[in-house]
Fold this sequence. Notes:
This protein has 15 helices and 16 strands. It is elongated. The protein has helices spanning about 15-35, 50-55, 60-65, 85-95, 140-155, 170-185, 190-200, 210-215, 230-245, 285, 300-310, 330-340, 355-365, 375-380, 400-405, and strands at about 40, 45, 70, 75-80, 100-110, 125-130, 160-165, 250, 265-270, 275-280, 295-300, 320-325, 345-350, 370-375, 385, 395. It is about 40% helix and about 20% strand. The longest helix has 20 residues, at about 15-35. By secondary structure, the protein is an alpha+beta fold. The strands form three sheets. The protein has an eight-stranded mixed β-sheet with strand order 1-5-6-11-10-9-7-8, sandwiched between helices. The structure holds histidyl-adenosine monophosphate. Histidyl-adenosine monophosphate (HAM) binds near residues 112, 121, 258, 276 and 304.
Amino acid sequence: xxQIKSVKGMHxxxxxxxxxxxxxELVMIELAEKFGYGELRTPLVEHKNLFIRxxxxxxxxxxxxxxxxxxxxxxxxxxxxxxxxxxxxxxxEHGLFYGQKQxxxxxxxxxxxxxxxxxxxxxxxxxxxxxxGFADQYIEVEIINLVCSLFKALEVxxxxxxxxxxxxxxxxxxxxxxxxxxxxxxxxxxxDSKRRLNSNTLRILDSKNPNTQAILSxxxxxxxFLSENEKAxxxxxxxxxxxxxxxxxxxxxxxxxxxxxxxxxFEWIDQGLTLCAGGRYDSLVKxxxxxxxxxxxxxxxxxxxxQACNKKLTERKSIAVLSNADAAFIKAYxxxxxxxxxxxxxxxxxxxxxxxxxxxxANQNNCGYAIILGQHELAEDxxxxxxxxxxxxxxxxxxxxxxxxxxxxxx
Length: 411
Ligand code: HAM
């Protein structure tokens, strides 16, 4: 029978890897909660229209990469490709934004049918922050600072790039000038950029094609089209970042692949991969049927952060409780229960009338110690604690004494 494998670009996470992911996610959640962000969980499936109206019908994400389908009722649905649209949809639906500021975080799987490669998957996981109802730029500073603190804690190296995309008005003027300039050089543009000239001109700035890049080096820059207010916004953010000791680079070519941004945008990049990205989106709440509500957010790809994380996050230690006599079973079983409630160890309980296979199992499970209870220990009314790396065995009078020893040990 032919074996069924996982879907291309979608991966299993085995226990040894999953524990790194979980440890890292806990650091993210803990920090977000410390900044006052609360969790929002939204469904994996949304109406397809939600993403068309927010991310944009011409964006690659919606145009080429979305997993969409009609359900039995004929409703057009989609697996979510990102989290911002759903946060805004849910906030409007539940009245979260009426006269209130909301700091939200989310963690979950997203789906994009991209060409799989290192750091790019068809199912991936994002941790995101959305601050909704904040008009002034202190919130950009807060969010950027939060991400920088997180990366410092995780020992993630990256370069922070910032740009301002301008309001609709400045952007329309800019896009029209950019289009004029690129039309003059159309024969040297790559095919993707030619196609984007009329549908998504700004995205051409993202092209990696060397010929297109050469043409872009003399193209008009968005900074020349920003209003005084918009320039002041960018200056405010960068001045505050400098005060906080946060390094950044202004990248006038930084555009985002989603249509909803209206102000400052930012990305953290390492070795050609964007680890985290976001920006201000002041029109989205209104566009999706809510009141005029300003907002800023970011999202980071968990798989990419796991790869970039240099910090060894502390892992739960393991201990084995080995019962090798029927008469010892219930006593040993209760010891395992006590260890699970009174210590942080993962406790593996194993029973077999022979000791050797039990010790082998303790080794397989990377246990630093094994507690052994058999005929010999029962007869002497003692408990044996075996250090699995040195092989040293010591007899104790009580489990409480053993717990004391474990607390003072780094094994
Ligand atoms: P995005 O730039 O599309 O923005 O995605 C954010 C992050 O998700 C990327 O920087 C990357 O780390 C990760 N990511 C994206 N696609 C993939 C993939 N195929 N495989 C692995 N990782 C991936 C957004 O999604 C916006 N919602 C961010 C935002 C939040 N803006 C405002 N609020």
